[in-house]
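Can you please make up a whole protein chain along with its backbone structure tokens because I've never seen that pairing?
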Amino acid sequence: MTASCNCSVFGLVIHSDLPLPELLPCELNAGADVVITAGKLPEADGAPAGLSVVDDALILVIPGVAKYRIADGRSISVEAEAGAPGRNVRLYLLGSAFGALLHQRGLLPLHANAVDIGDTAIAFMGESGAGKSTLAAVFRDRGYRVIADDVCVVGFDGDGKAYAKPGLPRLRLWAEALEVMGHGTAGFEHSYAGDEEFEKFDVPLDPSSAVRSDIPLSGLYLLARADHFSIDRLSGVEAADAVFANTYRGAFISAANGQENHWSSAVRIVRNLPVFRASRQWDLARLDEQCRMLLDHANALVG
């Protein structure tokens, strides 16, 4: 039997019966925020693919991979399909299953990457394929620390100030982006095991430079495509719509009874944090230039 592990992600301490090599180990000093167990889930029998509510818990069924029971924002039980690669089981565990758990806990997970630009953070929101991870990789290559990849959990202090919480310590990049940045794909594992045509790879971040605590968030940028580079401030309904549209697994909010907390968090962001639309040309050859312009804007923002 594989030994259990203690690790952290999204500001939560996790005790898991499953190995979670993607996460950073941590001490279990005051008990775990989330417990992950493995075994048969009788209540998931007959549950449809996707997310459903069963006996006050959420059941997530990913055909060919696993079933997950998410309860009270504190536990995830996993029943893996026979023969399913552990990498794929963990992919959905640390993705969609945790997305449901974060909503149960009343947290705000954004579909965003976040980068530390010097004791403050900026985050780039956008749908899958918007270039969030690729842009974050360019920042990393310039010496900046990546706080979160794909899922950035936002928290607030008593004064309403927003913080970015540390996410998974890796970048998920397309083969083409890796080639353009001069890294190549050698030594990196496919994000989804068993489908060699899916040319996306997991690129671990250096643990020695990993972000392990919350960092004040100074601005949100919604990535968009355009014929030229521009950054425009969003306000009011437009800014709120950007937050709602780029909430990670937003379709899970109702099932997780998270509507009130989600609404409250979105309003707090719009009131306390500048939200911008960063329009850019879709050209990998111009990534470094666009990163520099975005960095110049962010540095001017934090003054």
